[in-house]
Amino acid sequence: MTKKLTRREKHSLYAASGIICLFIIMQFIVLPVFYKQDRLKRNLKVKTEILQHMIALKSEHGAIIQRTDLSKGHFENREKGFTLFSFLDKLSGKAGIKDHITYMKPSTTVQKNSPYKTSRVEMKLRGLTLQQLTVYLHMVETSKNMVNVKRLSISKTGKPEGFIDAVLQVETSEL
Predict the structure, then answer these.
(1) Distances, alpha carbon 23 to alpha carbons 10, 13, 18, 31, 65, in Å
(2) At what angle do helices 84-95 and 130-141 cross, to 10 degrees?
(3) Among 55, 106, 123, 137, which residue has the least CB neighbours within 10 Å?
(4) CB atoms within 10 A of CB 107
(5) Residue 10 and residue 25: Cα distance in Å, rounded?
(6) Residue 143's closest CA among 106, 169, 116, 170?
């Protein structure tokens, strides 16, 4: 090809070469840099979300540890020989409803893979006022012995107006 290119052909060839070079530069240098930046930004966002989740879990774990320590303290502060049955019996005397107790049925459940057991007492109370029941329930729920009312059933009695019967199940955990 000894033939010389015309000026117009040279310009066309230079333009085509420039476009091809520009395409190669864009395809193999510029675009990969942008794709890498996008990928890094996405990774950073994901890692930030994971970190925030880990911080939330750490905070939750700390709260659980704090509640566990508080519970252990309550267990240690219980009087020696604490039993749920005797505790409820004493409280009923303080609340003045001991005469209204029809029965108290204690039961104990041992928890698997744990040193703790759950003690329950089911009580039936007859012919008491709602005020008397409220005072007794308040004494049970606010004691520092980690005792709570699991179930409560209230019904009207056939006696004079304003009296009720109640069946309640109280429980606590013990070592």
Answers:
(1) 20, 15, 8, 10, 61
(2) 140
(3) 55
(4) 12
(5) 22
(6) 170
CA-atom Rg of the chain in angstroms: 39
- Res. 136: pLDDT tops 50: yes
Of 167, 163, 85, residue with least CA distance to 125? 167
0.90 exceeded by the pTM?
no
d(CA 167, CA 119): 17
Helix H or strand E segment including 123: strand 117-129
Reported confidence tier of residue 106, pLDDT bands at 50, 70, 90: very high
In whole numbers, what is the pLDDT of the chain averaged over residues?
A: 87
* pLDDT at residue number 68: 82
Residue carrying the six token digits 């009312």 = 149
CB within 8 Å of 156: residues ≥ 6 apart: 163, 164, 165
Strand pairing class (163-174; 147-156): antiparallel
Phi, psi for 56 (deg, rounded to 5):
-65, -40
How many other C-beta atoms can be found within 10 angstroms of the C-beta atom of residue 122? Answer: 16
